[in-house]
């Protein structure tokens, strides 16, 4: 059995901590068994490991999340990279062709698909493993997993089983999407289940579907045609058209932590970061990523969240509306985690002559390095403020330490490796300061040394 973990979306409902590059699943606000902060994706990857599933799991994600994933779950985690965001059907189709033509997975193999960020008990993943046997026993096109509702929620979709079935799994009658509370009560009386976005199929089912639609089944060709695939969910394109569907009930704990009000219910501490909350502020949470203290006085049922991207003060029940409220805010992400560390934007200005100036504070973890790269539209000045490292510019290596200043002109090939944890203030100046102006020549330090020995 293989697992595809879908990691997409911008998670704007958890603004300002989440942005286009740091989705909700990467926010380190939950505590692990050692009482250390971890993200949703780190928690899920740890749970998969305990159930013996991590070595058969693949993360389907966009290019913008690769560094974040590798930073949080390790560089060995298999990632299937989507060239662009095109909803869940294209993402799953791409993953299926990867398993088929690149990994060599048997067409008879069962593949389970699930979100990368469910907040669940370990036995949730034990139940996911049962989907393999359900597919074998039922002969179904798709086997879904549904959560037994604990209340008549209006936030979730429902899977309604056919009547008169009392086995381990049931045939599916129909789906109902986010009903009103009174309708949700009726559905629960009909043994309906919350749709938690987990389903399984034999790989051959999707490969044959792609063939029928005239789509490629070779991964490299699918990559080339990916931009032509229609943007549509897997539910609409496949699930609702399938001839034989069954559902496996799960009666354990499950929660979607997609909004501030649901997320804070699982955060064990009221304060993360610098700040204080008065004693008369009940059920209030403060999450502060800034270097300045924040005080909350006499406010109950409130979420206060601050980051380089912005500041949110919201009543918890109203917090899901933040996604609509911030639509007018358009800016580059001000904080990002990368495979080598992280950076925070300190200042950005557009000059009268049209040039741009961007100042970052960069952290490079000991033993890590930036890629060997080149820019054509900007120059950079690096001021080392802490730590020791090694810089290479146009093939020339030199040691650096706190207090050193390096000027990197445009079109200069350059990289830096941290011997101890490094902190750098970087000032970029150029006509256009965009990600597309980063041309990466090598990634690992070993590759860089080999490249420089030959090319310079």
TrEMBL record:
Domain Mannose-6-phosphate isomerase type II C-terminal: 338-441
InterPro entries, per the entry: Man6P_isomerase-2_C, Mannose-6P_isomerase_type2, NTP_transferase_dom, Nucleotide-diphossugar_trans, RmlC-like_jellyroll, RmlC_Cupin_sf
Pfam families in UniProt: MannoseP_isomer (PF01050), NTP_transferase (PF00483)
Domain of life, source organism: Bacteria
Domain Nucleotidyl transferase: 4-266
Protein name, entry field: Sugar phosphate nucleotidyltransferase
